[in-house]
Amino acid sequence: DPLGRAQLLEFLKKEFSAENLSFWEACEELRYGEQSRITEIVDSIYQQFLAPGATRWVNIDSKTMERTLEGIKTPHRYVLDDAQMHIYMLMKKDSYPRFLKSELYRNLLAEAIIPPETKKRVFPFMRKQRHSSPSP
User: Fold this and answer.
1) Ranges for the RGS domain (predicted)?
2) First vs last C-alpha separation in the chain
């Protein structure tokens, strides 16, 4: 959901961890983007998020970093999958649960447009009788 993702990004900015979601999104662009741009996108992701002194450095463990740095020597669509999964799990276990408890999320829910409920029977195969029949 674009609105939910934008609100999560705002929350992460306040938590000083917005780079995690940005990295995840960049990896999605790599996975589903144009084949002709793969090398360019991998290099851009490396420079922004993984290189020593990167402006938006993401914190991944040393083994994942090793595999990633080895993999980007021959860039392909899935070369950042391990690093992306690591960041995803960090957000899933830490940032996202805090977001769900935040005032920002509560406000988002309060402003949500909820479609009117439609009346559905619990058992749609049971039809309501049209006319009451006299009991014997």
Assistant:
1) 1-109
2) 58
